[in-house]
Amino acid sequence: MARVSVTVDGTRYVDEVEPRTLLVHYLRDQIGKVGTVVGCDTGNCGACTVLMSGPDHVARSVKSCSVLAIQADGCAVTTVEGLADSDGTLHPVQRAFHEQHALQCGFCTPGMIMATVDLLRENPHPTEAEIREGISGNLCRCTGYQNIVRAVQQAANGGAAPSAAHSAPVESASAESASVESAARPVAHSPAVTS
Amino acid sequence: MTATIAQPEVGRARLRKEDARLVTGRTRWTENITLPGMLHLAILRSPYAHARITSVNTAPALDRPNVIAAFSGADVAETQGVLACAWPVTEDMVAPTYTPLAVTEVRHVGEPVAVVVARDRASAVDALEAIEVDYEPLPVVLGLEEALAEGSPLVHSDKGTNKCYTWIFDSAEAGTGGNAVQAEADAEVVIKRRYVQQRLIPSSMEPRSVIVDPSGGEWTMYSATQIPHIVRFLLSATTGTPEHKIRVIAPDVGGGFGGKIGVTPEEWIAFTAANRVGRPVKYTESRAESMVSAHHGRDVIQDITLSARRDGTLTGVSVKLIANMGAYLGVVGPGVPLLGAFMYNAIYKVPAYRFECTGVFTNTTKTDAYRGAGRPEATYAIERAMDELAAELGLDPVEIRRRNWITHEEFPFTTVCGLVYDSGNYEAATEKALSLLGYDDLRAEQAARRASNDPVQLGIGVSTYTEMCGLAPSRILGALRYGAGGWESATIRVLATGKVEVITGTTPHGQGHVTAWSQIVADQLGVPFDDISVLYGDTRVANKGMDTYGSRSLAVGGIALVNACEKVRDKAKVVAAHMLECSADDLEFTDGAFRVRGNPEAAKTLADVALAVFTAHNLPDGIEPQLDSEATFDPSTFSFPHGTHLCATEVDTETGQVKIRRYVCVDDVGKVINPLIVEGQVHGGVAQGIAQALFEDAVYDESGNLITGSFAEYLLPSAADLPTLEADRTETPATTHPLGAKGVGEAGTIAATPAVVNAIVDALRPRGVHDVMMPCTPERVWRAAQDGSGRGSS
Amino acid sequence: MAGGPGWFWKGFVMIPVAFDYVRPSTVEDAVAAVAAGGDEAKILAGGQSLLPVLRLRLAAPALLVDLGGVGSLRGARFDSGALVIGAMTTHAEVASSALVRAEAPLVATAAAHVGDRQVRHLGTLGGSLAHADPAGDLPAVAVALDADMVLAGPSGRRTVAARDFFTDIFTTALGPAEVLVEVRFPRMSGWTGGYEKFHRTLQAWALVGVAAAVRKENGSIAEARVAFTNMGPTPVRASSVEAALVGAADLGAVKAAAAHAGEGTSPPTDISGSAEYRRHLAGVLTARAVASAAGF
Predict the structure, then answer these.
(1) Assigned domain for A133 exists
(2) pLDDT at residue A169 above 50?
(3) Domain residue spans in chain C?
(4) Which of B475, B485, B784, C235 has the CB geometry, 3.0–4.6 Å to C140, for a possible disulfide?
């Protein structure tokens, strides 16, 4: 067993893990972050995507099925469960996925949202082609990606829906109008961590 | 009195109620569930496509740390039950015994052989390596025609044949049309083509997962399934466990596309294992296991013959299929081709029709329903062949369809199969699609590229389709020998505060029923959208249901829902009249409330009535103090959505690369409950249809190993591999549905595949190309472009 | 015919075989750890190829030596006229490095073609090269640009030319206790280049990749470097194409030179495409890559 110290969604955890434990299994089985899921064995589907801080303390998207938990020692990890504010206000990317009907079964959604947050960190105003390339490490079987692309566009536009000639006009599920804020805002938790 | 609801909910683009948990990770996938004392199961699978099991020794696994139990098929032969096929399509269909764990013989790679139950997943997996199995390899048969040939190795030697069944429909014999053989003999033009539907893997993003809790003489099964009700029934029937002691829960289910309508070895093995150890047992498949063990789809050879006059008028269609069942029969596997049998005549006025399908066993993973199930195959064959007929006669692909389709004045129309198409407007959908695409401009560009011998050629693919949705009238299912009915159920519970709980027998796994059903009930009962909950997927809550597949949930379940609401209104009306001191006959239900005719201010909402019923202080005599209701609906016919899909592809003749430049679809799914959800269903369906045309292919090597056993080889398209989808609609309400709805889940998949392949062939037709095999890989397209031989190879 | 057991049958399980793990912080310690582990040791760089292999139990090392803690292996710098990129520099870092983009744009371009964003955030240049996957994008670039591999072992460092480094499929000149520490790309001012990757989907392995760089004088090609991905067990340097390109001044001449692309190659036939098709593609893609690099 090896000791790992990792900050996940703002909380610091110190655990003993088998070296072979994948980060995604550590997140799910040891600390109960079951929002992050496993869709394949080969690093193709991206459903397990989380943000992990690198040596430069910048949080970047990684596939947590292709990282050992022990490799995350000393790192900060953000999962889909750490995106929304503590008062429940959705992250602009989460809100855009909801408002653009960018999910159906929702299984790919955590990874797709995290990949989007990462894409917009580096490229706040991507073209459609850049969006499609930027989320190509994440597979979705339900949506045909059309509404996911729209959601990324909305998040990039600071919450405004993209113009789309063939898109149905949308009505909010509840009456309040959510405040518009930039998707480029940093995730809730500081990536810097000391171990 | 609460505010009335002015705007109908049905038709609004409501955002989904389902999303709140899904976008925040607060999900309940089966794999997320942990029960007290739960153990983990791992399955040892056959590395051989066909072998006799001469011995299995599980004892060494028991010496490994954390291992609670290990056993083989032979150890549980008496108790593990069997996996039933619910659709014996003919009286003499060959139905081999299908056990969850193989006992004496394995017949495809990945078939379960033995299991380990351990404290944790890693220990279970590690201990699999200690199990000793001796196999005696047997001859393997993989090809469909090879399997039917004299002297072929047999998948089931005790059956003496690899043929499962032959099923025939002939319109002359059925009295629904003419003689297709005669039509061919008399035809001025005959088009004969062979098309191959490659094997596909449904590939929902959530792998299958199951937990069985055997506590206290009752069994609770959590399963990532589309069909909890059918699983419960068959688990009871095949293991002898009393049905009332079994509860099956489908929690959040991450997609299905037909791939989760099985009754699976893994569910039955988990049940057996849980019983052996007396504790809850969980099994979640790896993707690799999913690829070899969860059922596959399609895999059909189609020979289609069109008979026509020189003016393009069809005079007959005949079809001969060979369908790959795999090594065993899936729960509805043999019936899948039958779901397409009545669709080869499509939207056309076909006077004579013959259909013959032979099911065949091979040493491969079993096949069963995959999105569209039979109907994509039918639509592909007829739409490809119609293009061939157009080319033969020098007609535009749109024109050949115009000359044959049922015009909107001709509905209701009885087809050559005896089905009554209630409504449709193929002209309107096609005109809208042509205009959206700018068809004539693209034809002009195509001509220019041909004239300049541009290395990048342009092709335009046309696909018109209809499908039979809303599975299904129980009487018809019975006539087709299906083992269950096709009804659906709904329950309404009215709470004291006027909030409403809806219980549906459908089992959504991404389709948005919670939202759509709320919209329907809101209008029916005058209850605000946000005041409605929809419960499903737990046989203890939704005790009756036929689940979700075949675009049936709204088309059938939606009517049950409307009927249940009507019963609530009928009950409530009596109470409202009592409260308003008038006769029930003086009340009408408008603007979300019971109102006195001529005096709309005198009104009671359902909430008013609900509270009165709850207190029960002053109810009319003989009225029970509750408003709840239940309805079960069995349809008398199918519904028939339709549409026109157009695809413009650029084909690089130097590399064979295909780029979809435009994809335009106009679907008519009848009255739309939620346009957002409908559009999403179309997008996803089209993506899967495009993927069949271009990317996906389950390939076996000569030994029967699946060489596309992961997403690294089985190519699902990413966002970068798919075009922008331009989806629009026309709306011709169903006349057979109180809401006018028809169903949408499979439409895109059905239409898209032929649209894409027609476009590729259209681009290359001047080079003598008349077909490219699916998937249209760059090499196949390149070869077709080079030698004009058409089919491509490799 | 009778079936044989599939190679992947253990791969149904998805959890690696248990192993020990060390994370040295210096190259010397890493070399020592690998030497001590012997045949049972494997080096973990970014893990984007290795971890799926371990999960499928295609390999079962007893020890993983993680280079992630060796900070000196990250980053790019100039040294003696060469662009030196540390082995643990990630693809994302290579692709976005101003230094690499300026001095070896072909390396940056090819790095941007590896995998997807997530893979590029962890996958490393050294890991990709040492993995020596015939379908990997970077080996061909290293061979095209005459890169030098710097290897550290128990008896010190040595340099191996890229064309000698790749010895067979998934096999390199790395000795049993050696670690690839950096890659030196000779400075090539005045060159332009490109990487043409042909695949069925963006996630799929390259059917064929072409790395091409040219230097022009007076409007015609004076020097050319061309190498192929997935046209044999190791990257293939297309020497006859390079020779034929000298003097080419228009698209027609480039196409004529590219017709030699199949020479000396031994591409595989698999479900993605036949050897014959790959040879054909190599020619078409070579012409396109060179024409684009040369501005024809």
Answers:
(1) no
(2) no
(3) 16-69, 71-186, 191-294
(4) C235
Q: For residue A136, which residues of chain C lie inside 8 Å, CB to CB? A: 116-117, 202-203
Better-predicted residue by pLDDT, A182 or B289: B289
Per-residue pLDDT tens digits for A29-88: 999 999 999 999 899 999 999 999 998 999 999 999 999 999 999 999 999 999 999 999
Could you tell me which chain B residue has the CA closest to the CA of C274? B794
CB C230 within 8 A of CB C209: yes
Name the residue facing B23 among A39, A113, A139 (closest C-beta). Answer: A113
Look at residue B576 and give its three-state secondary structure: helix
- H-assigned helices in A102-145: 109-122, 128-134
Cα C115 to Cα A61: distance, rounded to the nearest angstrom: 13
Q: What percent of chain B has pLDDT over 90?
A: 96
DSSP B709: -
Domain B33-138+205-255+260-293 sits in CATH at: 3.90.1170.50
Cα separation of C143 and C128, whole Å? 13
d(CA C36, CA B696): 46
- The residue type found at B533 is S
Q: Is C87:C126 a contact under the CB 8 Å cutoff?
A: yes
Interchain contact, B657 vs C13, CB within 8 Å: no
Q: Do the chains contact at B715 and C204, CB–CB below 8 Å?
A: yes
pLDDT tens digit string along B129-166?
A: 999 999 999 999 999 999 999 999 999 999 999 999 99
Domain spans of chain B, in order of start:
19-26+487-633, 33-138+205-255+260-293, 297-471+637-787
* Chain-chain contact of C47 with A41 (C-beta, under 8 angstroms): no
Q: Rounded to whole angstroms, how far apart are CA atoms B14 and B33? A: 30
Per DSSP, B557 falls in state I
Alpha carbon distance B181, B174 (integer Å): 14
Residues of C in contact with B721 (CB under 8 A): 201-202
B128 closest CB neighbour out of C2, C13, C207: C13
Asked if C268 has any chain A CB less than 8 Å from its own CB, the reply is: no
Per the CB < 8 A criterion, the answer to whether B234 and B41 are in contact is no
Tell me, which fold does domain B297-471+637-787 have in CATH?
Answer: Aldehyde Oxidoreductase; domain 4 (3.30.365)
pTM of the model: 0.96
Q: How many CA atoms lie within 13 A of B362 on its CB side?
A: 31
Q: A43 and C18: CB-CB below 8 Å?
A: no
For B516, name the nearest residue in chain A, comparing CA atoms only.
A173
- Measured CA to CA in angstroms, residue C1 lies from B48, B107, B696, C16 at distances of 12, 14, 27, 33
> Measured between alpha carbons, how far is B757 from B462 in angstroms, rounded to an integer?
9
* Nearest residue on chain B to C8, alpha-carbon basis: B47
